[in-house]
């Protein structure tokens, strides 16, 4: 009985908050939901709790309704009905502050009180497309257009970043919302670097770009769907021996700390630190797939390491960067977590040298996700 009450209450509260945040017409819709749930679950005595918060939610809905009316975007296909709940983009309470949405729609989504929030409604088609990209990438499906999820017909992924690289989108809960990529090779085949959430329909979309011959895992945290995608594509699955427990059936096992060429123009640079088996993949002296070893920090305006989320050793990471920085040249930084960046190779070379020095001055610290500088 207690479990039923908790489940019904949780679902009802989530629906109330979703309707409240969609603003227009919220009051009548909320009462309709409460009454319908009361009829369906007469034994679940949750309505006393609901009534305690209902008054506050209705006031919140009224206030958001005024804000939404002021920021309502102009759509190319129609003038939006002012009474439509579909007018408002928002981020719901499930957001884990992973930063992916802010990477894709930086002018519209910002960090507010420890999670992403839509700070301005879209005003152009391009801005609305950016929000759809964020919505389809979000691993908790927290980015909502009114009370609805995004229309599948508007899914932009795989999203082309350059002539040779696509962003997979559809980030997975099981990789902490990490970004993943498809790298096109001169022969026409592709390599997948880390993985999106598993779906046979998504796999078909990615395979439509061409034959995918390899799935390259940067480290254990991103290994969740590697075997499924490798089997679907008939591809080889790669991981470093230091993180082999996360993919014990891998086809290609990287060993040691020296660079290893795994395909023409593609080199794996073992980079123990974030995890024991972390790897950087470098392609054509142009693309650097860094996993969680380092990323572009918008806060710092520079390359950064996730010093507060280092599972193995910050000391080892400093040694890895000192060893690897002089050996790598690239123009695109493409991490799993944190932002992407394109700069001239000489500029990245200078910044990598400096990063190695800064990391060498860091001391071990407890893991703290809230201290990340996105």
Q: What is the total tally of β strands?
A: 19
Give the overall silhouette. Answer: globular
Query: Secondary-structure element sequence?
Result: HHHEHEEHEEEEEHEHEEEEEEEEHEEH
User: Runs with pLDDT <50, length 5+?
Assistant: 1-8, 21-28, 43-47, 55-85
How would you characterize the largest beta sheet? 7 strands, mixed
How many helices? The count is 9
Q: How large, in whole angstroms, is the Cα Rg?
A: 23 Å
| Distance between the first and last residues' Cα | 44 Å
Strand order of the largest sheet: 5-6-7-8-9-10-11
**On the 0-100 scale, what is the average pLDDT?**
84
Quick structural gist:
This protein has 374 residues and is α+β, with helices and mostly antiparallel strands. It is built from nine helices and 19 strands.
Describe this entry's structure for a reader.
The chain has 374 residues and is of the alpha+beta class. It has 9 helices and 19 strands. It has helices at 2-22, 26-40, 47-71, 100-104, 125-137, 200-207, 226-233, 314-324, 345-360, and strands at 89-91, 109-112, 115-118, 143-145, 159-160, 165-167, 181-184, 190-193, 212-216, 236-240, 252-254, 260-263, 266-270, 279-283, 287-291, 295-297, 302-304, 332-335, 341-342. A 7-stranded mixed β-sheet has the order 5-6-7-8-9-10-11. The protein has a 6-stranded mixed β-sheet with strand order 12-13-14-15-18-19, with no helix packed on it. The longest helix has 25 residues, at 47-71. It is globular and about 55 Å long. It starts with a helix and ends in a 14-residue tail after the last helix.
